[in-house]
Here is the input.
Amino acid sequence: MIHMTSLLQNIATVIVIIMLANRLYPYLLHWNKPGQCLVIGALFGAAGLVSMNMPIHVDSGITVDLKAVLAGMSGLLGGPLSAAVSFVVIGGYRYHLGGMGMAPGILCIGAAALAGSALNLVFRRKRLRLRRIWWLPVCFGLFIALIQLAATMWFPPDIRNGLLRDFTLPLLTLYPLSSVIFHYFVTVEWVSYHDTQYDRVTLLPRYERLQGKWQRMIDRKQPFSLVILNVEKLRAVNDIHGVEGGNALLRECAGRLGAGLPKDGLISRFNGQDFAVSLPGYDMLQSLIWIVDMKKKLSVPYLIEGSPYHVTFSTGLAVYEGDAETLQNLFMQAETALRHARESGSNQTVPYESRLTEQIRYRTSLEKDLQFALDRNQFHLSYQPQFELETGKLRGFEALIRWNHPEWGAISPAEFIPLAEQTRLIIPIGQWVLETACEMAMKLKLNEAGATMAVNVSAVQLLEPDFPDRVAVVLRESGLQGRLLELELTETTMVQSFEKAADQLMRLKECGVRLALDDFGVGYSSLSYLRRLPFDLIKIDRSFIEDIGRSQDDRMTKSIIDWVRELRYGIVAEGLESYDQLYWLKQWKCDIAQGFLFSRPMPEEELLRYLRQLMPFPFAVPSPEVDGLPS
Here is the structure.
């Protein structure tokens, strides 16, 4: 019992030293890795010296203390360099003390330090976290206790028997306990602080860690560039390979970026899938050159669970040139540039310009005002007529939403529809469009004329579970026949969730409505994909219509029309603007067309006047004098 109490006092004294050393750790983080290992080794070495000066004396030159435990924990927590420092300090002092127990004591110190170092290397290579394996310090403490007990074979039988009788239980109990306590104070306390400064996945410094360095560069008016790189499609990797697959990708990206840093460059894991890089002394041109070179290195395929992945990066760039910018403003500029890069397409780089901030403010203003536009009656519908090309008969109308902003004037749907989709305001807005268009159809007596009303549907609307039910309610309340309502959906709508979209389309067909695939030819359509969806019409994108009569690419347009006709879909051409286009679309037997040649989209008042004056459109146009067009 006396020996147990003495060892506990020894442990308590060592813990006090380690707790005091914890206060040094925030400063230690500013050192490089070898420097940190040297300090950890020196810390455990110093604790070993204290322990050896408070030993349990057994015989002349034979003592029992925590020296081997401390040398082993130094290797386990700090690695080989830490273990070497501790071994030199503790082993050297044990050699200085001399006596019968010197040789086995030094052997135990060395064996514990080697074992700890070996475990540290294994954990580092396998990227395991020591603090999550609670049983490791227990087993490690038992291992060192067994080494100590085995070392008694060095002594004469009477001394060995006394040691085994008096110290077997204390060593097997208190060595594991001391290992757990030391493990806690170093890994839990130090690693917890470390995690506030460094990213767990990439081991890169967090923004908070580098904030002070960047601020000092600004305070000293030292020019540098700030680059924020966004890893595109990281979510897709996570979906396929799980979070660990995404983490492996981020670690590889971090490694390549770190290898490409210029002297004194800094890199940080910034937000979930962004990296922030500072390039000291770089101007705009030098930064763009660095980005191009770095993207080449980053474009080399990444191997994740045996599968190669090509990864692209959106990049925002801001340059600090010693003016009166703050660090916060500089990051805002880089993030603004990044946002524009992401909106510009894949793998784009955008340098910051002041006009980008104005554009962001404009978009933010639109997003805010969009919430009230419906209640304030700022939306209206315009209607563009569609004609059958074979007969010249009015076939129907497409309803197109317009926003008349009180400050900005007419806002293009291409600007506010994406915002409405992001905020899900497209659901009430789309419902209003559907109801208003059906009411207009009844006002125009389309039931009697057999003419159609086409309405565009967003992916967000389509994937709402009750959307088909809402359509059915609108048809019932308006009185419009289902076969005269045409819902237009883009190819990207289908891609977002094919199976769910297919189910929704089948439910819509049960309501009797017609379905049209819009902007055909610019997305993801394939034959197998089309045959699985119940579309009635295919709308060819205007990009295939605009060059008819002016380009040899007309053959592609003709091939698309022939292919769609083979599949027995109706064909609609949008963007018709010239008689040449009209002539060839008729020759290629396109069914329906709409465009400025017939009429611009018209608000309700103009549409009613237009219909009163409408005469059959003169489709018997003369053959254009164009060479090289397909017949």
Notes: Residues 207-352 form a domain with the Alpha-Beta Plaits fold (CATH 3.30.70.270). The first helix runs from residue 2 to 22.
